[in-house]
Automatic annotation (TrEMBL):
The lineage of its organism: Bacteria, Pseudomonadati, Bacteroidota, Flavobacteriia, Flavobacteriales. It comes from Flavobacterium subsaxonicum WB 4.1-42 = DSM 21790. Gene3D superfamilies: 3.30.530.20. One of its GO terms (molecular function) is glycosyltransferase activity. InterPro entries: START-like_dom_sf (IPR023393). This is Orotate phosphoribosyltransferase. Keywords: Glycosyltransferase, Transferase.
């Protein structure tokens, strides 16, 4: 299952956005209002839970400064990645898009597609808070 967020423009340099996303603590600022838990578990990992959903642990899997940051599930039970594509439009304007990629059975994919789509749209929509 592949899902893409809309592209958003943030009035910050690409390196600034990359550095902010590389600090996992900043993901708390991007989370939706219905967050039930957010806990940094290490320099490159955090756990979060939305109300009514199970906890998910994410960790940084790859960095390609200043254009790409890949987060992945820390558990192999639900393998997925969340990739942030960061493209400089000018010295102080950056386009950001999130890509979710995971392998789920058809039933699971049907259940989570809506919530995941809304989640990544919220994350990218809150990029201006960084």
């Amino acid at each position: 299952m592949n899902l893409d967020s809309p592209k958003v423009t943030v009035n910050k340099p690409a390196q600034y956005i990359f550095d902010a996303l590389s600090d996992v603590q900043n993901f708390e600022k991007l989370m939706p209002d219905n967050i039930a838990k957010f806990e940094v578990t290490g320099p490159e990992a955090f756990i979060f839970a939305l109300k009514g959903m199970p906890e998910i642990k994410l960790k940084i899997k790859d960095r390609q400064a200043p254009n790409k940051l890949v987060l992945g599930a820390a558990s192999d039970k639900l393998p997925f990645t969340l990739t942030g594509d960061i493209n400089a439009l000018s010295d102080d304007s950056t386009e950001v898009q999130l890509h979710f990629e995971g392998e789920f059975n058809a039933m699971m994919a049907m259940m989570i597609k809506g919530p995941i789509t809304k989640f990544i749209e919220t994350l990218v929509g809150n990029m201006h808070k960084l």
